[in-house]
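Lab manual, section 2.4: Encoding a predicted structure.

Procedure: take the sequence of the chain (102 residues), apply the prediction step described in section 2.3, and record the output as structure tokens. A sample record is shown.
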Amino acid sequence: MHWHASIQYFGLFGLSNRASSMIGPNVIQAIINHTGDNWKGFPFLFAICTAASLVIWFGVDVTKGRHAAVRWAEEKRGTYEYAVGKEVESGKDRASVGSGLK
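Recorded output:
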């Protein structure tokens, strides 16, 4: 990833963080004002968290992300011989070294 792409990524992350910090509490307050019950906001929160969890569970390829992260770290370090300070043994998956996975 080039430096300008990482700037765009973190800019988008910051924007979505600020937007959710403003929109979320206002939606909850609108639900409370409409119903007059503080507990009515919790189903909305539960639904949002469930939807996000489903996207993460079924939409994110963890293995691919782990391999990409190891590859990126090795490129930044300038070496393909070491992963997380340990020599990679032949035949062992680089992503499993240092992550506790076998």
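Check your result against the sample. The longest strand covers residues 82-83.
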